[in-house]
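Kindly inspect this today.
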Amino acid sequence: QVQLVESGGGSVQAGGSLRLSCAASGYIYIRHCMGWFRQVPGKEREGVAGITSDGRTKYTDSVKGRFTISKDNAKNTLYLQMNSLRPEDTGMYYCGYSGGYDYTPLPTQFDIWGQGTQVTVSS
């Protein structure tokens, strides 16, 4: 069973940067994908960025050019570098793991979640 632990959230002003980390442990399938999702109260969890086991990445339109997803396979750690943050980026960020090969920004496609890390961007 894979376990995920996120870290790196916090409070920043608009225009600032944060880097989220997600440490994975347990048995990780060779073929898998991981993603970062964001959720605000009263709304569904939405996909922000994803990466496959062979390094292909996808981003939701609102973060393209500002966020970068990456992973360190040696450390089994997923990252999300967030630059030029905006108030609308505020939310709880969750790391997700899927045994599927291709990333889709659908929470239902992901099997395992971390506990989340809060990101708050003030104007």
